[in-house]
Amino acid sequence: MREVASPDGSEAATLAACVATILELPFDDVPQARAGEEAAGWRIMRWLAGRGVGLVPVDDAASFSWAGPWIGWARAPSGERRAVVMYGVPSAVVWDPSGAIDADGWEVEGGYVIAALDIALATPPRPQAPLSAGTIEAIFVAGDAGAAAQARQSVRALAGHGLEGDRHVAGTGTFPSGLPGSALTLIEAEVCESFAPALSATEHRRNVVTRGIDLNALVGHEFLLGAVRCRGMRLCEPCRVIERYATRPLLRPLVHRGGLRADIVEDGVLKVGDDVRPLAQP
Questions:
Q1: What distance in Å separates the CA atoms of residue 96 and residue 154, rounded to the nearest whole number?
Q2: What is the pLDDT of residues 182-207, one digit of tens each?
Q3: If 0-12 CB within 10 Å is exposed, 13-18 middle and 19+ buried, where does residue 124 land?
Q4: Buried-state track 144-159, b at ≥16 Cβ within 10 A, e below 16
Q5: What's the pLDDT tens digit per position in 122-143?
Q6: Separation between Cα atoms, residue 3 and residue 88, nearest integer Å
Q7: What pTM was computed for the model?
Q8: Are 90 and 240 in contact, with CB atoms under 8 Å apart?
């Protein structure tokens, strides 16, 4: 995602800017509706179809979540409507191309997901596993969704559940436990240190901080945390929840940099200083 500003606050221009942002295109590449046409009408829909995607309507933005960018319609008390980019589960505004909705009274009331017309043709290839190993720099557990993160030098990993003493095991976290990708969360120390001051465990809320390995590249691959066998399931993308615990905006800066969600395949103990090593693929 690459932010593209809108030259004016019209529905057509802000929608075009949101589409350009999500597709990472220049603003002028996206067609705008002409006078008398719907902002999300045939003109832009046919152009999108040429790229193999389309707009799927979202009726109730308040209850809709998506682990990626989508377009929301924000309406002012005056009735004025502009498009914004939403992100996360649960979602929040991650980019306002007209810079207008910081004022009071704007509400997101609907929108669109940009989706592939044929998902089988659009599924990205699995990334190649990293070739080098990293290390575990820190380990944290929290007893429930609102509890402070507690540092551990070592902790027992429970296959199919999570880290002993953590909310993911107890089922007291923000999200359901026991589902694929719900046992363990990881983030790179390099990402944390890119903020000033560096992200704390209270802000990022991840279980394991690593150094020296590309966590995004572990999606779809098995790896070892020390002697504990894990499987990378999906990116741990940021959402509105992370901003409950932070005193600064983190949603946009952590897009595609929020770390990894993983399953624990075998019981074991992991320790600070252990290696993080991808396993050879069969």
A1: 43
A2: 899 999 999 999 999 999 999 999 99
A3: exposed
A4: eeeeebeebeebebbe
A5: 887 888 898 889 999 999 999 8
A6: 16
A7: 0.83
A8: yes
